[in-house]
Design goal:
mainly alpha; 0% strand; elongated; 3 helices
Length: 68
């Protein structure tokens, strides 16, 4: 029985590419990807778990743009 039951590993240059090449019809446009995200209900459930925004430290009447 051989020590390595799978045989010797092929050198990296002889191995087939494992990366799937997408054809043009497989490519999704930016708008399609955004639409997929908006249609995914989990994103809205996760958004509900976010804490509310923190109040601003500066009061509106003391803002530098309002004092001049």
């Amino acid at each position: 029985m051989p020590d390595d039951i799978f045989g010797d590993a092929l050198p990296q240059s002889d191995r087939p590419s494992r990366k799937r090449q997408l054809t043009d019809k497989d490519q999704r446009s930016r708008d399609d990807r955004i639409g997929d995200c908006l249609d995914y209900p989990l994103i809205y459930e996760l958004a509900e778990l976010l804490p509310p925004p923190a109040p601003s430290a500066a009061r509106a009447d003391t803002h530098p743009s309002r004092t001049s």
